[in-house]
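queue> pop job 88
queue> type: inverse folding (structure -> sequence)
queue> payload:
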């Protein structure tokens, strides 16, 4: 309550007033991430004049890990320093490996002088799709590079790509040709071709290499015929677009 008085002057009802002081809040954005992958999101402090503080972020379940940037392995609890006048700060949400059932986790953001902020982080089984396979290929054509993307599955493919999480071992994608007599798969290690080849998706990337020389997989015509080319990653859902047919003619 704030009031004002003056000697010899009557105080009117308006000479007294009330001021309510409340803590500003924290807004946190909800997010969905694939198991073994990562995506960025942010929180926003409800006031800028906080004088520089340390903000603590925590996950209610180890299925969701948190990181201050895209190159740091996630943890269940992290801290981020925030300079005065800064309100919105980005961070990364990572899905732990090996999750095939949807998990909804609470992410809580706390800081001195602010009421806690919370949001959900949902971890889902990730998907993989195949790209670069032509519908037709001449028997005399040069080797065509094929590659895989990973991310959130939706419909026939992916709704959004997401990088392999920081701190995680490279993912191994296995490419297969159903009819090696028509089309074989090549790598630098097996330039002569085979029915199955592998390529890796390293931390910080959502794709296998785009050239054979860089570690990717090539599709090589052999003779007239049709072959179903597919890709798979352990623990990942192979989308409808994860298998595509090529006709060599």
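queue> result:
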């Amino acid at each position: 309550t704030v009031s004002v008085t003056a000697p010899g002057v009557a105080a009117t009802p308006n000479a007294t007033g009330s001021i309510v002081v409340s803590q500003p809040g924290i807004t946190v954005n909800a997010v969905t991430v694939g198991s073994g992958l990562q995506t960025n999101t942010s929180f926003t402090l409800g006031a800028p004049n906080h004088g520089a503080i340390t903000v603590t972020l925590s996950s209610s379940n180890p299925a969701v890990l948190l990181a201050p940037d895209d190159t740091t392995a996630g943890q269940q609890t992290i801290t981020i320093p925030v300079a005065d006048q800064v309100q919105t700060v980005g961070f990364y949400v990572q899905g732990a490996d090996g999750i095939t059932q949807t998990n909804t986790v609470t992410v809580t953001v706390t800081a001195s002088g602010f009421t806690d902020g919370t949001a959900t982080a949902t971890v889902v089984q990730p998907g993989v799709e195949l790209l670069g396979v032509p519908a037709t290929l001449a028997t005399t054509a040069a080797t065509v590079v094929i590659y895989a993307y990973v991310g959130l599955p939706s419909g026939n493919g992916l709704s959004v790509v997401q990088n392999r999480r920081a701190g995680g071992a490279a993912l191994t994608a296995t490419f297969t040709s159903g009819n090696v007599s028509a089309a074989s798969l090549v790598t630098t290690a097996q330039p002569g071709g085979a029915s199955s080849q592998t390529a890796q998706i390293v931390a910080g990337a959502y794709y296998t290499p785009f050239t054979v020389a860089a570690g990717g997989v090539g599709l090589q015509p052999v003779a007239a015929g049709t072959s179903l080319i597919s890709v798979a990653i352990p623990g990942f859902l192979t989308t409808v677009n994860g298998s595509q047919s090529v006709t060599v003619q």
